[in-house]
Design a protein that fits this description.
177 residues, alpha/beta, two-stranded antiparallel ribbon, 6 helices, 33% helix
Length: 177
C-alpha cells in the first residue's frame, strides 16, 4: 500500500520494487484502484530451482502487458548456472521483456583489499566476464560493480563503517543501494 501511495505522488516519476514475480498476478489487481501501476518499475529476479521459469515469465508479462509496468527480468550468474541464465534470457526476450544478468556474489566470501573479486564466485572460473557478456551482461557495468567492492583508496568497501545513508524516513542504511 505504501508503494501504491508513492505512485500517486506528483513528484514521483517511478517506484522501483524488487520481487520474484510470483505474487504479482494476485497483488497488482488489488492495487489497481489505489495506484498508478504504470509508475511501477519492477526488478524481478529469477533463481533457478526456486520457481518455475514459465510461471515467472507469465507473471512478469502480466505486469508489463496488463498494467504497463516497466519490467526487467534479472538473473545472477554463478559458476554452474550459465545454462539456466541463458534459458531465462531466451524466455524473457521471447516474451518481450527486458533482461539483465548480474554477477552473483557470496557476501560471506573471503575478500581482501588485493582481491575483492573473491566475493564473486563465478570470477574464479576462467573467462567469466566473457560468459557474462555472451549472456547479455554488460562487461563495463560488471567492472564498475567489482570496483565498488573497494574504496577509491584500494581498500575494502567501508559502507556502514565509515559512511551511512539516511533515507527520507530517517532510517539508516549502510549505503544507498
Amino acid at each position: 500500500m505504501k508503494a501504491a501511495w508513492l505512485t500517486r505522488q506528483s513528484g514521483v516519476v517511478y517506484v522501483e520494487l524488487l520481487s520474484n514475480a510470483i505474487l504479482l498476478p494476485r497483488r497488482l489487481p488489488k492495487l489497481e484502484a489505489d495506484a498508478n501501476l504504470g509508475k511501477l518499475s519492477l526488478w524481478l529476479t529469477w533463481h533457478d530451482g526456486q520457481v518455475d521459469l514459465e510461471r515467472f515469465i507469465k507473471a512478469a508479462s502480466f505486469a508489463q502487458e496488463r498494467y504497463g509496468c516497466f519490467v526487467v527480468v534479472n538473473t545472477l550468474l554463478f559458476e554452474t548456472n550459465a545454462d539456466a541464465v541463458a534459458r531465462a534470457r531466451d524466455a524473457a526476450l521471447a516474451a518481450g521483456l527486458r533482461f539483465n544478468v548480474d554477477l552473483g556474489y557470496d557476501p560471506t566470501g573471503a575478500v581482501t583489499p588485493k582481491d575483492p573479486s573473491a566475493a564473486v564466485p563465478v570470477l574464479q572460473s576462467p573467462g567469466a566476464l566473457d560468459v557474462l557478456a555472451a549472456l547479455g551482461g554488460n562487461r563495463a557495468l560488471a567492472g564498475a560493480a567489482l570496483l565498488g567492492l573497494t574504496s577509491c583508496r584500494g581498500m575494502l568497501c567501508r559502507a556502514g563503517h565509515d559512511t551511512a545513508f539516511i533515507d527520507i524516513h530517517g532510517q539508516a542504511h549502510r549505503c544507498s543501494n
